């Protein structure tokens, strides 16, 4: 039997083990990845087994992803090093690269391909959903620290995903709950928010996730559904040739576009290589069945670059002096361990 390439949909699963129906859905030709959440995690041994069963359910390629930035956004906790939020590294710049390495090594050791990190948004002091998930309020410092964090991820064998293009840090509203509007013009966004994206793209950034934010002075569509943002600015102007992941189509910031199949079609038309449909299994199935099954060699090539390259299993990793040293340093000064 011919092995299936990566499909364009990333979906999720309900619990700690797979149901038979989930096995079938994972093997759908349009499935390409599974994202894991806190509800899918109990222990390193359990999640390793779950990931193995996800891979076994698919006759072909599949990616396993998670949000493991640190701070508020860390899905795997018990048995993993508790990572500080990105803002921590502004005062501990020597730790940024080491933390990127440790985060990636711990995930790769249980079978995860990549974490959706680093956050490249500049904290403008108004966004609670971004806040200390940003490396800094200063664009140059945020660029420098996120570059180091990505370098650490790469050293471990993990591709990086910069988010949320072209910048989510200047809107107060949370795109999970509503559609934020950023009234700034393109020149203002270029001067500040695009700096980290431009620099990391120049350094070879593997993937980008656009924001469910509308910038009406620039384009009427949310960035993840905008050919202007994804094609003209991201692909053409900034020269990005990696993977574009949509943000989750279940978020309220995507609702203005239409029903789920319509959101998926518009995200694809705008230029997204992979579309996330999370926390709504019925919607995920709608999208899987509504999108035509297509062979796309360029998408396949981009998604192959997201595959993790694990070097050590968990036991081997925890026996290395490098892991022990970094884990101790990160844990010692981490307010999230209090």
CATH fold name: TIM Barrel
CATH homologous superfamily annotation: Glycoside hydrolase, family 3, N-terminal domain
Number of helical stretches of at least 4 residues: 12
What is the total domain count? 1
Order of helices and strands: EHEHEEEHEHEHHEEEHEHEHHHH
Helix content: 25-40%
What percentage of amino acids are in beta strands?
Answer: 5-15%
List keywords for this structure.
338 residues; alpha/beta; TIM Barrel; five-stranded parallel β-sheet; three-stranded parallel β-sheet; 12 helices; 12 strands; 37% helix
Secondary structure layout plus pairing:
Elements: E1 9-11, H1 20-26, E2 31-36, H2 44-57, E3 63-66, E4 68-70, E5 73-74, H3 96-108, E6 114-115, H4 139-156, E7 161-165, H5 186-191, H6 194-202, E8 207-210, E9 214-215, E10 219-222, H7 227-237, E11 243-244, H8 260-270, E12 275-276, H9 281-290, H10 297-304, H11 314-318, H12 321-332
Parallel strand pairs: 1-2, 1-12, 2-3, 3-6, 7-8, 8-11
Antiparallel strand pairs: 4-5, 9-10
What does this structure look like?
- The protein has 338 residues and is an alpha/beta fold.
- The protein has a single domain (9-324), classed as Glycoside hydrolase, family 3, N-terminal domain (TIM Barrel, Alpha-Beta Barrel), CATH 3.20.20.300.
- Helix content is 37%, strand content 12%.
- It contains 12 helices and 12 strands.
- The longest helix has 18 residues, at 139-156.
């Amino acid at each position: 039997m011919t092995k299936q390439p990566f499909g364009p949909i990333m979906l999720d699963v309900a619990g700690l083990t797979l149901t038979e129906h989930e096995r079938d859905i994972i093997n759908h030709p349009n499935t390409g990845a599974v994202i894991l959440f806190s509800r899918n995690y109990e222990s390193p041994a359990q999640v390793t087994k779950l990931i193995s069963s996800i891979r076994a359910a698919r006759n072909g390629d599949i990616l396993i992803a998670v949000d493991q930035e640190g701070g508020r956004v860390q899905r795997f906790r018990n048995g993993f090093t508790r990572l500080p939020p990105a803002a921590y590294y502004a005062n501990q710049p020597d730790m940024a690269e080491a933390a990127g390495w440790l985060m990636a090594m711990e995930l790769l050791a249980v079978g995860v391909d990549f974490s959706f990190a680093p956050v490249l948004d500049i904290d403008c002091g108004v966004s609670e959903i971004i806040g200390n998930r940003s490396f800094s309020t200063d664009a140059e410092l945020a660029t420098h620290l996120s570059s180091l964090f990505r370098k650490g991820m790469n050293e471990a064998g993990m591709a990086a995903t910069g988010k949320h293009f072209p910048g989510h840090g200047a809107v107060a509203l949370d795109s999970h709950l509503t559609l934020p509007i950023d009234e700034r013009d393109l020149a203002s966004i270029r001067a500040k928010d695009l700096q980290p994206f431009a620099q990391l793209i120049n350094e070879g950034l593997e993937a980008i996730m656009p924001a469910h934010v509308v910038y009406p002075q620039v384009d009427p569509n949310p960035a993840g559904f905008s050919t202007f943002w994804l094609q003209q600015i991201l692909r053409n102007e900034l020269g990005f040739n990696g993977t574009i992941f949509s943000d989750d189509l279940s978020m309220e910031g995507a609702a203005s576009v239409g029903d789920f199949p319509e959101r998926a079609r518009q995200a694809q038309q705008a230029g997204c290589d992979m579309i996330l449909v999370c926390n709504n299994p019925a919607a995920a199935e709608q999208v899987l069945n509504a999108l035509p099954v297509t062979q796309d060699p360029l998408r396949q090539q981009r998604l192959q670059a997201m595959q993790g390259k694990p070097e050590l299993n968990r036991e081997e990793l925890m026996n290395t002096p490098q892991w022990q040293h970094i884990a101790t340093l990160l844990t010692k000064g981490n307010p999230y361990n209090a």
